[in-house]
Amino acid sequence: MRDALLRGAGIGHTVGVKMQEGEKSKEHMDEIRIGVAGLGGRGRSWMRLLQRVPGYRIVALCDPIVATHEPSLAVLENSDGVATYTQYEDILADANVEAIALTVRNPRQGLLAAQALEAGKHVNQEVPAAHCIEDCWRIVVAAERSGKVYQLAEQTRYMGVMQAWHDMVAEGQLGRVTFVEGQYFHYYVSQFFWEKDTATFYGPLEVPAHPEAEPTWSALMPAIHYLPHELSPLLYVLDDRVVSVTGMSTQGPSYSHPVIPQPDMQVCLMKTEKDAILRLAASFAQPQPPRDYHWYQIMGTQGSVEWRRSNREKPKMWLANGQMHDMAEVDWQFQRTDAPAEARGSGHGDADYYVHAAFRDAVNGVRPLEFDVYRAMDTAAPAILAAESIAQNSKLLEVPDFRPSANRPAGAMPTDG
Q1: What is the pTM for the complete model shown?
Q2: Please, what's the largest Cα pairwise distance for the chain?
Q3: What is the tens place of the pLDDT at every residue in 81-93?
């Protein structure tokens, strides 16, 4: 399984079980012994952050590409005793590792998360969780059977603007929400080709000079699979889940860069349990000016809110009962006004801190995850099915509810096919 950890291109369902008495040394009694699997740029940024957030100790690193090991060890303030592995099975077999930071992007990343849970490890996993519905189910069932914490490390739900919009919707300020938009447009082509053995990346214009370069998973992945970054915050704001989805796509390869096999644009429509319509889009290959990768809009019967369209703008709000004749600018930001000092500069508008703090607190039994394994799959599955809908000429597909029911007890795989 040497290629099972092809890294991302630079980029629980329950509280954790208490450790046995004496299992941790007194010096590290409150620290989670965590292993980082996937040592690309995103993995190393996690390593830097895990050394800042109280409650973690990095004890192992894993990547099949040996060339990534030394630069990753150099990120650590103290690498003494830190084990390095090239095989994923080996880090899972390490009894000193109680949690896995899974910072990979590849077709099997959902399977890798499930394997870690099945091996008795807590899992904190990078977006988008999985790339097939079968792996979504395997993650859910493994979390239920093991009692270990699974978290999808999606950070935009913790951003200040999303906290504000969540409260507005919960308080009824927008009335009944009927229409929601979200998009993730990230011109990411510089990481679309690589030499695996050296982890050297190339953009499409560099490929002719490097015929040995191969497409990364980011170049092959349906862009719509990355929609958990939009669904996570929006479903948090709405307190809702998607029940059906249909999708459309431009043709591949890219019109912008024909060497890229991925289409330039993919779009989907989704219907929620509370009868809202979502229109979402994703693109990695289409050129755009530098700006926020994310854009959102929420419309209700009594008002609407909208994120900024460019870096020169501010977000906007309109309330029907507020004597407002047009949208008004509001100084919402990604950064939170209530962020603790240790969150500042943690990444992604300071939201990365909240991901790791939430996982730590769940593993230590301080509080259960709000964004549990079921809500995580609520964000992953609709995106996967959007791509399947595109492959089936925009067929409308139903989204499963991953929560236990009379037809599926906790810990059992679904039997309806």
Answers
A1: 0.91
A2: 65
A3: 999 999 999 999 9
